[in-house]
Amino acid sequence: MDTFLDALSAAFALIFAGDADLLQILSLSLQVSLSAVAIAVLIGMPLGGLIAIRRFPGRQVLIVVFNALMGLPPVVVGLGVYLLLSRSGPFGVFGLLYTPTAMIIAQVILVVPIIVSLTRQTLDALWREYSETLNSLAASPAQSLVAVLWDARFSLITAVLAGLGRAIAEVGAVMIVGGNIDSVTRVMTTAIALEASKGELALALGLGIILLLVSVCLNLFGHGMTRLVTNEATQ
Q: What domains can you pick out in the chain, each with its CATH number?
Protein backbone atom coordinates (compact mmCIF):
# COMPACT_ATOMS: atom_id res chain seq x y z
CA MET A 1 0.00 0.00 0.00
CA ASP A 2 2.82 2.39 0.89
CA THR A 3 4.49 1.69 -2.45
CA PHE A 4 1.28 2.44 -4.32
CA LEU A 5 0.64 5.64 -2.37
CA ASP A 6 4.22 6.75 -2.91
CA ALA A 7 3.91 6.10 -6.64
CA LEU A 8 0.58 7.91 -6.80
CA SER A 9 2.03 10.90 -4.93
CA ALA A 10 5.03 10.95 -7.26
CA ALA A 11 2.69 10.74 -10.26
CA PHE A 12 0.74 13.82 -9.18
CA ALA A 13 4.03 15.58 -8.47
CA LEU A 14 5.15 14.92 -12.07
CA ILE A 15 1.82 16.20 -13.43
CA PHE A 16 1.77 19.41 -11.41
CA ALA A 17 5.47 20.05 -12.01
CA GLY A 18 4.98 19.75 -15.77
CA ASP A 19 7.54 16.97 -16.19
CA ALA A 20 9.26 17.35 -19.57
CA ASP A 21 9.11 13.65 -20.48
CA LEU A 22 5.43 13.46 -19.55
CA LEU A 23 4.55 16.56 -21.59
CA GLN A 24 6.51 15.32 -24.60
CA ILE A 25 4.69 11.99 -24.54
CA LEU A 26 1.33 13.72 -24.12
CA SER A 27 2.08 16.10 -26.98
CA LEU A 28 3.03 13.29 -29.37
CA SER A 29 -0.02 11.25 -28.36
CA LEU A 30 -2.38 14.12 -29.14
CA GLN A 31 -0.54 14.94 -32.37
CA VAL A 32 -0.79 11.36 -33.65
CA SER A 33 -4.36 10.70 -32.54
CA LEU A 34 -5.83 14.04 -33.64
CA SER A 35 -4.13 13.75 -37.04
CA ALA A 36 -5.44 10.21 -37.50
CA VAL A 37 -8.98 11.18 -36.54
CA ALA A 38 -8.96 14.23 -38.84
CA ILE A 39 -7.92 12.05 -41.79
CA ALA A 40 -10.44 9.36 -40.83
CA VAL A 41 -13.22 11.98 -40.69
CA LEU A 42 -12.33 13.28 -44.17
CA ILE A 43 -12.51 9.72 -45.50
CA GLY A 44 -15.22 8.19 -43.34
CA MET A 45 -17.95 10.83 -43.15
CA PRO A 46 -18.44 11.27 -46.92
CA LEU A 47 -18.28 7.49 -47.38
CA GLY A 48 -20.72 6.83 -44.55
CA GLY A 49 -22.99 9.56 -45.89
CA LEU A 50 -23.01 8.10 -49.40
CA ILE A 51 -23.87 4.66 -48.03
CA ALA A 52 -26.75 6.25 -46.11
CA ILE A 53 -28.30 8.24 -48.97
CA ARG A 54 -27.62 6.01 -51.96
CA ARG A 55 -29.10 2.61 -52.84
CA PHE A 56 -26.83 0.33 -54.87
CA PRO A 57 -26.08 -3.39 -55.27
CA GLY A 58 -23.97 -4.70 -52.40
CA ARG A 59 -24.94 -1.87 -50.03
CA GLN A 60 -26.03 -4.21 -47.25
CA VAL A 61 -22.84 -6.22 -47.62
CA LEU A 62 -20.81 -3.02 -47.33
CA ILE A 63 -22.71 -2.04 -44.19
CA VAL A 64 -22.04 -5.43 -42.60
CA VAL A 65 -18.36 -5.25 -43.55
CA PHE A 66 -17.84 -1.81 -42.00
CA ASN A 67 -19.76 -2.82 -38.88
CA ALA A 68 -17.50 -5.86 -38.56
CA LEU A 69 -14.37 -3.77 -39.13
CA MET A 70 -15.26 -1.62 -36.12
CA GLY A 71 -13.86 -4.47 -34.02
CA LEU A 72 -10.60 -4.84 -35.95
CA PRO A 73 -7.89 -6.29 -33.68
CA PRO A 74 -5.24 -3.55 -33.36
CA VAL A 75 -2.35 -6.00 -33.43
CA VAL A 76 -3.57 -7.39 -36.76
CA VAL A 77 -3.74 -3.88 -38.19
CA GLY A 78 -0.30 -3.15 -36.79
CA LEU A 79 1.12 -6.29 -38.37
CA GLY A 80 -0.46 -5.48 -41.73
CA VAL A 81 0.89 -1.92 -41.73
CA TYR A 82 4.29 -3.19 -40.58
CA LEU A 83 4.48 -5.60 -43.55
CA LEU A 84 3.48 -2.83 -45.96
CA LEU A 85 6.01 -0.33 -44.61
CA SER A 86 8.93 -2.67 -43.88
CA ARG A 87 11.94 -2.58 -46.18
CA SER A 88 10.74 -5.67 -48.03
CA GLY A 89 7.20 -4.31 -48.29
CA PRO A 90 5.69 -2.37 -51.20
CA PHE A 91 6.01 0.99 -49.39
CA GLY A 92 9.32 0.33 -47.67
CA VAL A 93 11.10 2.76 -49.98
CA PHE A 94 9.44 5.67 -48.16
CA GLY A 95 11.09 4.78 -44.83
CA LEU A 96 7.95 5.35 -42.79
CA LEU A 97 8.30 2.46 -40.37
CA TYR A 98 9.01 3.49 -36.76
CA THR A 99 7.82 7.04 -37.37
CA PRO A 100 4.75 8.96 -36.17
CA THR A 101 3.44 8.76 -39.75
CA ALA A 102 3.28 4.98 -39.53
CA MET A 103 1.36 5.27 -36.26
CA ILE A 104 -1.10 7.71 -37.87
CA ILE A 105 -1.66 5.29 -40.78
CA ALA A 106 -2.41 2.43 -38.38
CA GLN A 107 -4.82 4.55 -36.36
CA VAL A 108 -6.59 5.80 -39.49
CA ILE A 109 -7.27 2.20 -40.52
CA LEU A 110 -8.71 1.50 -37.07
CA VAL A 111 -10.84 4.65 -36.89
CA VAL A 112 -12.29 4.85 -40.42
CA PRO A 113 -14.75 1.94 -39.95
CA ILE A 114 -16.03 3.56 -36.74
CA ILE A 115 -16.60 6.90 -38.47
CA VAL A 116 -18.22 5.27 -41.51
CA SER A 117 -20.60 3.08 -39.50
CA LEU A 118 -21.66 5.73 -37.00
CA THR A 119 -22.09 8.34 -39.73
CA ARG A 120 -24.22 5.95 -41.75
CA GLN A 121 -26.39 5.12 -38.72
CA THR A 122 -26.87 8.80 -37.91
CA LEU A 123 -27.74 9.83 -41.46
CA ASP A 124 -30.03 6.88 -42.24
CA ALA A 125 -32.90 8.31 -40.18
CA LEU A 126 -32.20 11.86 -41.33
CA TRP A 127 -32.26 10.82 -44.98
CA ARG A 128 -35.70 9.24 -44.60
CA GLU A 129 -36.91 12.63 -43.39
CA TYR A 130 -35.16 14.75 -46.03
CA SER A 131 -35.07 12.49 -49.10
CA GLU A 132 -38.37 13.57 -50.63
CA THR A 133 -37.62 17.27 -50.17
CA LEU A 134 -34.13 17.03 -51.63
CA ASN A 135 -35.30 14.86 -54.53
CA SER A 136 -38.10 17.32 -55.30
CA LEU A 137 -35.50 20.08 -55.47
CA ALA A 138 -33.48 17.96 -57.92
CA ALA A 139 -30.47 18.08 -55.60
CA SER A 140 -27.45 16.17 -56.83
CA PRO A 141 -25.97 13.38 -54.68
CA ALA A 142 -23.16 15.72 -53.64
CA GLN A 143 -25.59 18.47 -52.66
CA SER A 144 -27.76 16.01 -50.75
CA LEU A 145 -24.72 14.65 -48.95
CA VAL A 146 -23.55 18.11 -47.91
CA ALA A 147 -27.05 19.03 -46.74
CA VAL A 148 -27.54 16.00 -44.48
CA LEU A 149 -23.99 16.13 -43.15
CA TRP A 150 -24.43 19.78 -42.22
CA ASP A 151 -27.79 19.19 -40.55
CA ALA A 152 -26.36 16.28 -38.55
CA ARG A 153 -23.12 18.06 -37.65
CA PHE A 154 -23.78 18.09 -33.89
CA SER A 155 -24.90 14.47 -33.82
CA LEU A 156 -21.81 13.44 -35.79
CA ILE A 157 -19.57 14.79 -33.04
CA THR A 158 -20.35 11.54 -31.20
CA ALA A 159 -18.81 9.59 -34.08
CA VAL A 160 -15.71 11.79 -34.00
CA LEU A 161 -15.32 11.36 -30.24
CA ALA A 162 -15.75 7.59 -30.56
CA GLY A 163 -12.98 7.54 -33.15
CA LEU A 164 -10.73 9.73 -31.01
CA GLY A 165 -11.32 7.51 -28.00
CA ARG A 166 -10.32 4.46 -30.02
CA ALA A 167 -7.22 6.18 -31.38
CA ILE A 168 -5.85 7.70 -28.21
CA ALA A 169 -6.32 4.51 -26.16
CA GLU A 170 -4.79 2.19 -28.79
CA VAL A 171 -1.57 0.40 -27.92
CA GLY A 172 -1.07 -2.76 -30.02
CA ALA A 173 -0.82 -1.29 -33.51
CA VAL A 174 1.24 1.76 -32.56
CA MET A 175 3.64 -0.42 -30.58
CA ILE A 176 4.29 -2.59 -33.66
CA VAL A 177 4.66 0.15 -36.28
CA GLY A 178 6.11 2.84 -34.02
CA GLY A 179 8.54 0.76 -32.00
CA ASN A 180 7.98 2.80 -28.81
CA ILE A 181 11.16 4.82 -29.42
CA ASP A 182 11.89 7.37 -26.72
CA SER A 183 11.22 10.97 -27.83
CA VAL A 184 10.29 9.72 -31.32
CA THR A 185 7.29 7.37 -31.25
CA ARG A 186 6.53 6.90 -27.56
CA VAL A 187 2.90 7.78 -26.84
CA MET A 188 0.90 7.52 -23.63
CA THR A 189 -0.33 3.95 -24.00
CA THR A 190 3.01 2.49 -25.06
CA ALA A 191 4.83 4.50 -22.38
CA ILE A 192 2.46 3.20 -19.70
CA ALA A 193 3.11 -0.39 -20.78
CA LEU A 194 6.87 0.15 -20.83
CA GLU A 195 7.15 2.04 -17.55
CA ALA A 196 4.91 -0.44 -15.73
CA SER A 197 7.05 -3.35 -16.96
CA LYS A 198 10.16 -1.53 -15.68
CA GLY A 199 8.56 -0.88 -12.31
CA GLU A 200 8.60 2.90 -12.87
CA LEU A 201 5.10 3.36 -11.50
CA ALA A 202 5.22 7.12 -11.00
CA LEU A 203 5.42 8.00 -14.71
CA ALA A 204 3.07 5.15 -15.64
CA LEU A 205 0.47 6.35 -13.14
CA GLY A 206 0.91 9.96 -14.20
CA LEU A 207 0.28 9.07 -17.83
CA GLY A 208 -2.59 6.81 -16.81
CA ILE A 209 -4.24 9.64 -14.87
CA ILE A 210 -3.90 11.99 -17.83
CA LEU A 211 -5.29 9.36 -20.21
CA LEU A 212 -8.23 8.83 -17.87
CA LEU A 213 -8.86 12.58 -17.66
CA VAL A 214 -8.79 12.86 -21.45
CA SER A 215 -11.32 10.02 -21.70
CA VAL A 216 -13.61 11.64 -19.10
CA CYS A 217 -13.40 15.02 -20.86
CA LEU A 218 -14.28 13.43 -24.20
CA ASN A 219 -17.30 11.69 -22.70
CA LEU A 220 -18.47 14.86 -20.94
CA PHE A 221 -18.14 16.82 -24.17
CA GLY A 222 -20.06 14.15 -26.08
CA HIS A 223 -22.79 14.08 -23.42
CA GLY A 224 -23.06 17.87 -23.54
CA MET A 225 -23.38 17.90 -27.33
CA THR A 226 -26.01 15.13 -27.20
CA ARG A 227 -28.08 17.17 -24.73
CA LEU A 228 -27.70 20.24 -26.92
CA VAL A 229 -29.02 18.35 -29.95
CA THR A 230 -31.89 16.90 -27.90
CA ASN A 231 -32.86 20.33 -26.57
CA GLU A 232 -32.79 21.82 -30.07
CA ALA A 233 -34.97 18.99 -31.38
CA THR A 234 -37.59 19.48 -28.66
CA GLN A 235 -37.84 23.26 -29.08
A: 2-234 (1.10.3720.10)
